[in-house]
Write a structure and sequence with these properties.
Distance between the termini: 23 Å
Shape: globular
Number of helices: 1
Order of helices and strands: EEEEHEEEEE
Number of strands: 9
Strand content: over 45%
Oligomer: single chain
Strand order of the largest sheet: 1-2-3-8-9
Radius of gyration: 14 Å
């Protein structure tokens, strides 16, 4: 999988031509970002990237296109989790946005030109 920023978006593209894009342009006072996790988050912990995220190499990982879990954690915390697989191993890509309900950030998952999931956080 390759990760790159372009035109105010962060993009993740795997070798199966699965694309996940996230609006990465700040509007005001929202706090948004992304991270890799060993498990699906039950609560959003955004203290900063941990050692796992910092040392994770996305090369060779691909998206499981059947897994997309969006969570509204209350008034401000919203996140979506995508599953990545490499053989029998799994990790999760988490996109999040903490805001007052006004500054949303869109995301989308596309497989070879077909939109599989899209919404706003």
């Amino acid at each position: 999988m390759e990760v790159f920023e372009k035109d105010g978006k962060i993009n993740f593209v795997d070798e199966n031509d699965v694309f996940v894009g996230f609006d990465y342009q700040a509007c005001c006072c929202e706090h948004f970002d992304w991270f890799y996790s060993k498990e699906v988050p039950k609560v959003l912990d955004i203290e900063g990237p941990d050692e796992f995220h910092d040392n994770f190499d996305p090369k060779g990982w691909v998206f499981d296109t059947s897994f997309c879990k969006e969570v509204s954690g209350g008034y401000e915390d919203n996140w979506v989790t995508f599953r990545l697989v490499k053989g029998k191993e799994e990790v999760f890509l988490v996109l999040y946005n903490c805001h007052n309900g006004y500054y949303a950030h869109g995301y989308t998952m596309i497989l070879k030109g077909t939109n599989l999931y899209s919404s706003y956080l």
